[in-house]
Amino acid sequence: MSNTSDPRPGASEEAVVKTPDSIAEGVDEDIVESNRRLYVGWHWLAVAALAILYSGFHLFSLNVYPMETWSFRIVHIAGALVLGYALYAGSRFANEEGTDRSPAWLAWASYALLIPAAYALVQVFLMNQTISGGAMRIDPQVETWHFGYPLLAATAGGILLAWSYRQAREKLSPADLVLMVCAVASAGYLLVMFNTPLRASTGTAFAPVGITWAAIAGSLLILELTRRVAGLALVIISAIFLLYVFAGPYLPGFLGYPGLSMNRFFSQVYTDTGILGPTTAVSSTYIILFIIFAAFLQASKVGDYFVNFAFAAAGRARGGPAKVAIFASGLMGMINGTSAGNVVSTGSLTIPLMKKVGYPGRSAGAIEAAASTGGQIMPPIMGAGAFIMAEITGIPYTEIAVAALIPAVLYFASIYFMVDFEAARKGMRGMRKDEIPQFRRLVKQIYLFAPIIILIAALFMGYSVIRAGTLATASAAVVSWISPNKMGPGAILRALQLAGTMSIQIIAVCACAGLIVGVISLTGVGARFSSLLLGLAGVSQLLALFFAMCISILLGMGMPTTAAYAVAASVVAPGLINIGIQPLVAHFFVFYFAVVSAITPPVALASYAAAGISGDNAMSTSVASFKIGLAAFIVPFMFFYSPAMLMEGSWMQILRVGVTATLGIVLLSATVQAWFFGPVKAWMRLVMLVGALFLIYGGIYTDIVGLAIGAALFLLQRSSHGGGAKPVTSS
C-alpha cells in the first residue's frame, strides 16, 4: 500500500516519503455473520428486493403517508421477522461437500407444515371478510380450531425443525419458509382485530381468543429470531420473565403477585403495554431511520474516511493506533448503535495496528471494546438507547443529547489518558509518517462530515428527529456526488438493502425487550422492586444507588445496549425516581450501567468480540476493558451528587464541574496506570485516587481539596521526572 522512507542511518529528512492514500479499507463493508445466508441468482434478487421494500416502506410511512400507529408497528415487526428468517439460519450450514446435509424426510416434514401455516393465513382473509361484512366478532371455535391451533402447530414445528435442518448456505430452508408464512398470518390477524373496536377488549375476558393465539405465535417467532441474531442471553432472560408470569403467584415475599391467566396476559402483551410499546415505537421510527442513515454513510464510504481522518490526526502520537481507535470507534459506535458490532467492524483494522506498535493483544482488544462501547453514550446520536429514553421519559431528545455531553467527554478523556499513560510507561511509538495518510489530503474532503453536521444543526434548530434524520440521509447521498464514491441509483438501492439487513438485529432485540417490559408492567414486579429500593434508601441512598447499579449491569449482561436499557429502565429507574432522584438523572444512571455491561465481566459482549480479533483470552480482555472504562462506573454516581454534570445548573457551575471532573479523570487514569510524568509509587497512587474522586465529585470544597492534591502531585512528579522518565518496558 505504501513505500517506506529511506531506512539508512542519517538519511536526509527531506527524503521523499510516499504516504498511503488510505489505511482503512473495508470498515464500511457489511459484516456477514456465520449463520447468515449468502444467496445467489434470483434468490439474491428476491431477498434484496424484500430488504429494499422494507427500508423504503419506513421512509415512505415516516415522511409521506403515516399509518395508524399500532398497524405500523405490527407491520414493522412482521417485516423484520420475514426478512430475518429469510436471511438467518436456525442451525449451522452444511459443509461445502454437502455430506452432512439433512435427510430428505426433514425437508418433506417442513413442507408438510406449510399446510397448517397456509391454512391459518387463509383464515385471516376469511375473518377479515366476516368483519368487513358487519359482524361484531368471530366465533371463538373458528378462531381456536381453524386459526390458533394450526398457527401454533406450524410455528412450534417450524422452529424445532429449523434447529436441526442443515442446508447449503445459498438456499432457503423450508422450515424457515414456514416461519415466514406464520409471521404474516400472526401479524395479519392482529391487523384485522386491532383495527376494530375489539382492540379495547385486550387484557379482559371479552378479548377474542384469536389474539392470544396470534400473540403466542408472534412471541415465539420473536424469541427464535432473537436467538439467531443476538444469541441466547436475551432469550433466556425473556423466558425467565415469561415463566414468572405463571409462577409468580406461588413465590414468597415481594416477588409474589395475584396472577394472570394465559388469555389475559397474551391478549395484552402484544399491545402498546408490551411488544408494541416504547421499544418498538423507537425501533420503528428513530432507530430504523438512523440505520438507514448509517447505511447511506457506509455506501458512500464515509466510514472509511472517518477512520483515515483519525489516523491522519492522531496516528503519529505515542500509541497512535490506540488513540485512533478511541476516535474512530467512538464515532462509528455512535452511529451504528451496537458495541460488539462496532468492535468487529473497526477493531479488525485498529487491533492489529495497536499490536504492531507494542500493545499486548489484551490491551489492544480492551481499548477497542471500551471505545466502541463509549459510542453508545456519545451525542448527538448515542447509538439507539437515547431515543428510547426520550420515548419513556417524555424529555426532548435534544435535551438528552445536551445532558450527555460532559459525561461522554469524561468517558473518552479517561480512555485517552489511560492509553497515553500506558504508551508512555511502555515506551511505545506512534506510526511513521509513511504509514498513515496525509492530513492535508484528507482535510480537502472534510465536507464528508456534512451529513452529521446537518443532523446536529437540524436537531437544534427545532426540527423533529425524523425530519432531521431524513435530511441527514438525503445529504449523505448529495455529498457523495462530489466525493470519489458517488452514489447513483444503484448505490442508493444498495444502501436501502443494507439498511434492511442491518435493522433486523436491533428490531428483534427491541421486540424481545418489549416482551420483558410487558411482563414487568402487567405483573407489577417493577413497582415491587421500587418499594425495595425505597426501603434501601431509608438506610442509605448510596446503598440504593449501588444496588441499582448492580441490577442494571446484571440485567444488561449478554444483552445488546438497547434491550439492556429498556429492561433496566422498566425495573430500576422507577425505583430511583421514587426515592427522590430526578427522572433525567435516574434514567441516565440506568442508561450508563446498561451500556457498560458490554465491558463488565463475566459476560462482556464487546470485550469478547475484541478478544476474538486480538487472539487473547476473553475473560482477561473483559477485565482489562473494565479497567480502561473505569470512569463510566464512577461518573454516574456523580449525577446524583452533582446535577451540573448533566447540564443542570448555572453556566459557572457547569463549567467548574466540567473542568474539575476532567482533571479528576486525568488523576484517575494516572492512578490506574501507575504513571504520570513517570512511575507513581503506591502511597502516591492512593493520594492520587483520593484527589481524583474529590475532583469528580463536583462539590466546591471537594474541588478545592482535589485541586490542591493534584497541584502537589503535579509539582512532585515534575521535579522528579521533569524531562520524562524512561519507560518501564521497551516496545
UniProtKB/TrEMBL annotation:
One of its GO terms (molecular function) is transmembrane transporter activity. The chain crosses the membrane at residues 42-62, 74-93, 105-127, 147-165, 177-194, 206-225, 232-255, 275-297, 324-344, 400-419, 446-466, 504-525, 532-557, 563-581, 588-611, 623-642, 654-677, 683-716. It comes from the Bacteria. It is a multi-pass membrane protein. Its main location: membrane. Keywords: Cell inner membrane, Cell membrane, Membrane, Transmembrane, Transmembrane helix, Transport. It is found in: Cell inner membrane. Residues 218-647 form the TRAP C4-dicarboxylate transport system permease DctM subunit domain. One of its GO terms (cellular component) is plasma membrane. Part of the tripartite ATP-independent periplasmic (TRAP) transport system. This is TRAP transporter permease. It comes from Billgrantia pellis.
